[in-house]
Design goal:
This protein has 458 residues and is α+β, with helices and mostly antiparallel strands. Helix 4 packs across helix 14. A hairpin with a 3-residue loop joins strand 13 and strand 14.
């Protein structure tokens, strides 16, 4: 259907005085004796295009055209509204493409986000989710551009895997058999399954990403990951999107520099390309959002040793729900205190105790810590987790043994340390979490089209 995008009509004066066709959904409708006004949106921008219907012009308007949610094709002349200096259309012909009955669920002007989560197929038509998913698109493009412009190779890692990257076992099982009492043992069950062994959905593309980096030097992955965590927090989802660069000949300080540069780059792209969305989020969800993001772009991130952070938390005049001791895994309340109260900006926390980190992280010379880093940001907490990877075969085997891990399924990974091992590093960025950070949306369920969480798969 030949038509003009509403964003072009709103932002360009090229169409003034011309007759054009636009399509969209009715967001609001106002009626009076001589004139009616429709606000039309086609998804190309956050703002709506006003359609003016002069009842004295002889135009025939189907009553269905003025109902919220109806989809229309409008032919008319683009004119300037002198009162607010915006472009609008004087309608000459209106065709109803799709009627919308009275039970359309978006009749109220404002609805709670919790209510909208119950109808993910409809909520995208609201201003909030129109803005969220436009920002998501811009950030995704910026991430690809950042890595592509710097010579990284985009790699697609497998979603079905026979190894658990995190070593935590929180994987969704992949099987074609399902429940059965026909097998005497787990080994017999999996031997008869599709792949002939136990398999699951990938929790991360890191291990395979390291494989690619050992031949291509600098790679990144960008795709879904799956975690079977029984968690109902605002930051966790069973299916989320992961950005994972892996870089050969890279040590922890280099990795931190790359991560900071990437975060600043994509935030600037967002601010440059989504000014209306940013203004919307600042008005509705987080006061001071623009200043926060400008501060991120214009200031260096802090780099703090885990041991020093623990001491700062222990001295804090705050009663934390979870006690703080060296060796503990920091909780959200600790991460937010560090970023929001102590440093008031993003913080790279480095050199974590090896007991709370994954087996593949490079062991430091002190024998107690690993060369790991988490990027913590105000309001969200951790958005990046990364490390220098252990390049020494014997140390890697020792770490796996300490964690009670079998080497079965990891032969390929161990071979990387056997055949021409090099210092290398990488990180994982939770894509939904950076969206939360730049929009002020507080729940991960509100920045992904179809959130997958415990007990919910709408």
């Amino acid at each position: 259907m030949k038509h003009t995008d509403i964003i072009d009509v709103i932002e360009k004066d090229d169409y003034l005085g011309k007759e054009i066709t636009v399509c969209g959904w009715v967001r609001t409708a106002r009626d009076s004796k001589n004139v009616a006004f429709l606000a039309l949106n086609d998804g190309t921008c956050l703002n709506h295009l006003q359609i003016v219907i002069d009842k004295n012009s002889g135009i025939e308007v189907d009553p269905e055209a003025t109902k919220l949610g109806a989809s229309l094709k409008v032919i008319g002349e683009v004119v300037k509204n002198d009162r607010n200096n915006t472009n609008e259309i004087n309608a000459k012909e209106i065709t109803v493409l799709g009627v919308c009955p009275a039970d359309y669920p978006l009749q109220k002007k404002f609805q709670k986000l919790e209510t909208l989560r119950e109808m993910p197929h409809i909520r995208v038509r609201t201003n909030t989710f129109n803005a969220v998913f436009r920002v998501r698109s811009v950030l995704a493009a910026a991430i690809h551009r950042f890595f592509q412009d710097r010579g990284y190779v985009y790699i697609n890692t497998p979603l079905i895997t026979g190894s658990d990257c995190e070593g935590a076992g929180e994987m969704f099982q992949v099987t074609t058999i399902g429940y059965s009492e026909d097998y005497k043992s787990e080994e017999e069950y999996y031997a008869d399954d599709f792949f002939g062994k136990k398999t699951g959905l990938s929790v991360s593309g890191q291990l395979e990403g390291e494989v690619a980096a050992m031949g291509l030097g600098k790679i990144y992955t960008f795709g879904p990951s799956f975690r079977a965590e029984n968690s109902n927090t605002q930051r966790h989802a069973a299916e989320f999107w992961h950005v994972e660069p892996e870089i050969a000949f890279c040590e922890l300080p280099d990795l931190i520099e790359i991560a900071e540069e990437m975060i600043k780059y994509i935030i600037k792209e967002y601010m440059d390309k989504c000014p209306e969305e940013l203004k919307f989020f600042e008005q509705r969800f987080e006061k001071g959002l623009t200043d926060k993001l400008l501060s991120v772009i214009n200031n260096d991130f802090a780099v703090v040793d885990y041991t020093d952070a623990i001491e700062l938390l222990k001295k804090a005049d705050v009663k934390f729900e979870f006690p703080v001791e060296w060796g503990c895994d920091l909780q959200s309340e600790h991460e937010r205190y560090i970023t929001e109260q102590i440093y008031k900006k993003p913080v790279f926390l480095i050199n974590y105790p090896k007991g709370i980190k994954s087996f593949y992280m490079k062991q430091n010379d002190d024998g107690k810590t690993v060369a790991a880093t988490d990027l913590l940001v105000p309001g969200v907490g951790e958005i990046i987790g990364g490390s220098e990877r252990e390049a020494d075969l014997n140390k890697l085997l020792s770490a796996m043994e300490e964690k009670g891990m079998s080497t079965e399924g990891y032969d390929f990974y161990l071979d990387l340390r056997k055949f021409g091992s090099v210092p290398h590093a990488g990180f994982g960025l939770g894509f939904e979490r950076i969206i939360m950070y730049v929009t002020g949306m507080s729940n991960i369920r509100d920045v992904i089209l179809y959130p997958r969480t415990v007990g919910s798969i709408k």
